[in-house]
Write a structure and sequence with these properties.
With 115 residues, the chain is an alpha+beta fold. Helix content is 25%, strand content 26%. It is built from 3 helices and 5 strands. It has a 5-stranded mixed β-sheet, with no helix packed on it. It is globular and about 35 Å long.
Amino acid sequence: MREFDADQVRELVAGPKFYDDQSERVCPACGNSSVRTYVHRSHIRVRPSLISYMWCASCRRFKGWTGPDLGTFDFTDPMERLSSEQRTAMAKDFGGFFRHLDQLWDAGELPQRFS
């Protein structure tokens, strides 16, 4: 796994917002329509935050962001029942984390639904 570079990230975020369009996007690195998004709420920090990931299921590049959770929308999260310890363990193995997200995507539990 390696991160998207700065130009690729700019290309990814130039598209529609993830809460408006959850479909797979075209990867700026490999050209496949296989960039997926996953968002979860974190309550570990002082303030509630949203942690977002975009990754390519084909070339295995990714990018993650953390921002404030303003509570402006609700969304489904198939991993919401994981403890903070389980999430921390998953975060130590990015490859395994994204393989798990791909399994959820293939099973129809992702993409998430926003309201």
